[in-house]
Amino acid sequence: MSDGAASFIAIVIGLALLILVCFGAVFGIKSFNRYQKRADIQNQVKINHTRIKFYDQQKAIEKRQADIRVIHAVGIRKAQDEIQATLTPLYVQFEMVQALEDIARSGNNNSLVFVPTSSNGGLPIIPGLTEKAGG
Prior knowledge:
Layout: H1 3-86, H2 89-106, H3 129-134
């Protein structure tokens, strides 16, 4: 065999191998793409399960917080009922006197003028303060 024939055969074999490698790469890319799509779908399923668990936890937290708000509201309502049952004009007068004493002790704008409303111990009117509250 001559050197020309041997080099020709080497070139043909080289081209054949190159063609096989190219076809193999094309088919390999298709297989890889299918594998990658399948892996992406499996990952998305896992992510969705994680999100579902997260939202279930969020729902449970919101429900607990709502329960706490209901319990708090029931407690306030009971306190209001108790106060309403025991609220008398004398108690209201006592609370007003306590509030006025707190204002006097605060040191901030503690000069008030009291105007009695009746001789039998009615609540005093505070000029300026009553006008602001009424209008």
